[in-house]
User: What shape does this take?
Amino acid sequence: MVVKQRKFSKLRQAHHREKAEDYVEMIQELLGKQGEARLTDIAKQFGVSTVTAHKIVARLQRERLIASKPYRALFLTSKGKKMATQSKHRHEIVYRFLRSLGVPENVAQVDAEGIEHHVSPKTLSIFQRFLKRNVNRNQPLSPD
Amino acid sequence: MVVKQRKFSKLRQAHHREKAEDYVEMIQELLGKQGEARLTDIAKQFGVSTVTAHKIVARLQRERLIASKPYRALFLTSKGKKMATQSKHRHEIVYRFLRSLGVPENVAQVDAEGIEHHVSPKTLSIFQRFLKRNVNRNQPLSPD
DNA sequence: TCAAAAATTTAGCCTTGGCTAAATTTCGGC
DNA sequence: GCCGAAATTTAGCCAAGGCTAAATTTTTGA
Ligand SMILES: [Mn+2]
Ligand SMILES: [Mn+2]
Ligand SMILES: [Mn+2]
Ligand SMILES: [Mn+2]
Assistant: This one.
């Protein structure tokens, strides 16, 4: 009984982390690609209003993942950089794992965006091992 | 650009469906196991207060997935049954897929609870094909 | 330079999903 | 049949994440 409860409480925790992970990952990407991360670009990427993006960023500033001065571009704290790097890494593995199974590019992109947040370290390392074993096959296991 | 937006909008849709899927699945399970689905049992299983469970059930009644008379046990509408059956099926495949890769039981349970909601039909059918191919191996691909 | 445009922030609204406290209804045992 | 316990519902609080409208600040270009 208590086992099942923990299962769902873990799910709720994962949901709380999700937005944080997606946002810091996006900010790191924008910093790399354009040199700076502006609120408008972030909102555009996520397909939400700047107001929504602003509120989420404000929460992540309270949580010391993001830093910025008013009306200025956004930066990641060291805590934020660490989360971004780890999330990006996990996201990549999940995406490449799906691709290696034969999931089409656009489907794998959408599915990985959700799945990534629910893959535990143990499962991730198993995905990695699977990728390594299939590294020299050019064909996916289940071609379309 | 718009591709990325759709990716996240799909993610938000998935989140909206998640609670619905978990609840109808749970109700179907309780109906099978105990003959009826009471609010207290549902709340216990999810590890939330009966008040929280009640509010979610009320929403799902508005959405015509659940039906009941006040102070009475809960039932699934035909729409709810359909969702429950499909969700259960997808959940099972995701769980068995993880297990077949060598993910330990308790980890697979937790991860599948989150992952299931983000697996598209295309990815699911690829998981199924993978399972069929590995059906006669007693050993998982990546043993612990 | 300085006015218009763009970007950011604030105010205020909504829904969902958490909670506790309290009211109401149903159930069980005597 | 009734009383107390259990279950359900209602009321009211909170935070997150969605929105539009409006205020504020920064940037841009004539
Ligand atoms: Mn990601
Ligand atoms: Mn994501
Ligand atoms: Mn499920
Ligand atoms: Mn689930």
User: Anything to note?
Assistant: Residues 12, 38-40, 50-51, 54, 58, 70-72 of chain A lie near DNA strand C (CB under 10 Å from a C1'). The beta strands of chain A are 66-67, 75-76.
